[in-house]
Amino acid sequence: MNGQQGSGGAETDAAKGISARERAYRGIRAKLLNGDFPAGGFIEEVAAAEAIGVSRSPVREALNRLAAEGYLELHPRRGAMVRGLNAAELRDLYEVRLMVETHAVRKICRERRVVPAELTVLCERHEATSPDDFLDCVEINRLFHQAIVAAAGNTVLVQVFDGLQAPLARVAMLSLQQGVGKTDIIEDEHRQMIAALSAHDEAAIVDLVKRHLDLMPRLVSALQR
Amino acid sequence: MNGQQGSGGAETDAAKGISARERAYRGIRAKLLNGDFPAGGFIEEVAAAEAIGVSRSPVREALNRLAAEGYLELHPRRGAMVRGLNAAELRDLYEVRLMVETHAVRKICRERRVVPAELTVLCERHEATSPDDFLDCVEINRLFHQAIVAAAGNTVLVQVFDGLQAPLARVAMLSLQQGVGKTDIIEDEHRQMIAALSAHDEAAIVDLVKRHLDLMPRLVSALQR
DNA sequence: ATCCCTCTTCTTGTATACACGAAGAAGACA
DNA sequence: TGTCTTCTTCGTGTATACAAGAAGAGGGAT
pTM (2 decimals)? Predict the structure, then answer.
């Protein structure tokens, strides 16, 4: 229906320059993050196409992309099944994310890399964002961690990190929707991380990352009740 | 994500049970690994479709998938550009791969996980494979390392590992084609890794992994000449 | 001769039509 | 009444037709 909106909170649908494939991708993704599709159910191409106002072709491409990103599971001759979040996968995800971010901050410290000013900017944007705009909060938080990983100077590591984002975004959305996440604590920890990183204090930043990401498994267990 | 693809030698055309999309994917991927497409060039959909004997639709889906896997780069209104291998990316790739496999073997040792018998089987298959069948050699080697990562019991880690395979496969193919890789050395090291893993000797296996993967940057520099 | 403009042509992006297979409903038989 | 079979229906998989933008050729102006 009227559901499609992009990451930035601005009205993106009126912009006709956007391709149909992109509109389909964003629209379906937003609904997935919103929990509009039941886990385990199938997304029907014609229905999605009509809802967005495009034909099946761009919808199929969007579904393929979403499947590659881990949102969906493609079953031959059946369609695109919505993947649910299970505790085991989230535990694995947390472990991998910790590995990636720890590797990144260690590298930054050891190689005395300059910490991008972007991090502070993102903190300010986070502060300025309305806590009700879940999509925006999640996006800014993602950008913050991505910027840290990127500062390590390994493009493949960034790609790996990006590949983890699909389930992460869903967990984050769920937390915010249910009022579990506390954005002020997150922001405070982010500022501490900037300080430790800028000082190239490896022990401190590794500890901070561990504690910061430890939010996730606690959120998960809170959500499971 | 990285689908199991019919390993090399088998003739893949006559099998009619395979979907057109899969035929397109395998066909284009094989040509990419073979180096039949010049890096930086564009793959034209109609030409590829006619070469495989299907229409543009499955070819488009195959191109999307190959782009998601890192073989191609999609440029809007231009098409699918063949990504080349550059030294910087390969260095990054090696670093990430080392991080992943080190994490896996450490976890296996620390949690006293049982090492799958599959590893020995794969060694034997490797031994039995004709050294001329590049695709098969590369595939078996990939399966060996994937089995180790899988033995760590973290599905997300396996997915990350699979995500690295596109450029890895291309490097491996290139090495074999140019006679740089020595399969017997690789196999010997694989057997040592099985032994160290089975003994849960963390220091030994980490060292072995480091030395084993260190083949890669050396291959790369050899290929660059 | 060089540069710019225009037009042609080719390729991708999107829509639609057709084919095949799967899931569920309805009916026959035990 | 329960189960097996068959048929209908619906949705994906694939092919094709149409639209629109981009690259390159060709001609004209400076």
Answer: 0.87
For chain B, the distance separating the N- and C-terminal CA atoms, rounded to the nearest angstrom, is: 34
DSSP A108-149: HHHTTPPPPTHHHHHHHHHHHS-TT-HHHHHHHHHHHHHHHH
Last residue of a domain, one of A41, A67, A82: A82
| B95 lies in the same domain as B74 | no
Nucleotide D22 C1' to residue A50 CA (A): 30
Same domain, B211 and B161: yes
Chain centre to alpha carbon of residue A26:
13
Quick one: A60 and A164 in the same domain?
no
Please give the Cα distance from A71 to A66 (Å, whole number).
5
Between residue 14 and residue 33 of chain B, the positions with Cβ below 7 Å from nucleic chain D are 19-21
Q: Which nucleotide is at minimal CA–C1' distance from A76? A: D12
Q: How confident is the model at residue B66 (pLDDT cuts 50, 70, 90)?
A: very high
- Establish whether the CB of A41 is closer than 7 Å to any nucleic acid atom in strand D: no
Given the structure tokens 């929990």, which residue do they identify? A35
Q: Which domain holds residue A73?
A: 20-82
The answer to whether position A8 is within a domain reads no
A122 falls within a domain: yes
Residues A129 and A153 in one domain: yes
Chain A residues with CB inside 8 Å of B89's CB? 155-156
Q: Which of A61, A103, A163 is facing B160, going by the closest CB pair? A: A163
In Å, what is the separation between the CA of A169 and the C1' of C10?
41
Would you state the pLDDT for residue B74?
Answer: 97
- H helix intervals, chain B: 20-34, 45-52, 56-68, 87-110, 118-128, 134-151, 155-163, 165-177, 183-198, 202-213, 215-224
- pLDDT per residue as tens digits for the range B163-187: 999 999 988 888 888 877 678 888 8
Q: By CA distance, what is A76's nearest residue in B?
A: B19
A116-126 per-position pLDDT tens digit: 999 999 999 98
